[in-house]
Amino acid sequence: MGEVIGREQAYHWSISRIAEAIGRDRRTVATLIKDAGIPPAGTRRGNPVYRLGDVVDAISTDRRPAASGIDINDLMPQDRKAWYQSENERVKLERELRHLVPVDDVQREMAALAKAMASSLDSLADMLERDAGLPPEAIEMVERVTDAIREQMYRAIIENDDEDAAAEA
Hints:
single chain; mainly alpha; three-stranded antiparallel β-sheet; 3 strands
């Protein structure tokens, strides 16, 4: 049976639960909690839990350095040149450390992944029919599910392309 907890503890969540709820990796959430200095509100099953309100405050608070609010065009020419040079060096370093991946590489890898997934989905029903001896009703169900997965992948790719096009405009 499930554990009964009090109302005040209902919003004390683990890092995994918070990550799942907000759609982020649990390592990102753990880093955010650590950087914000949020203390655990307690423990549940041996794991620390955090007040959801504290985590939401940390997520919604802009923690970027104050320098990001500076308008580059207001700087003196030599300072503006130095800023652009430092940004170019930062980008070069991130590219060397593989923190930045060229768009062409990403597109090529994603296309290879999509092709591999599509060909696997195309042949799945045939393999199940031939090798597992599934009845026709089961094969039809597999085909419906794989078609739905293929359609979902297609929609995700199209939505991503639309977002990229909007960002470039």
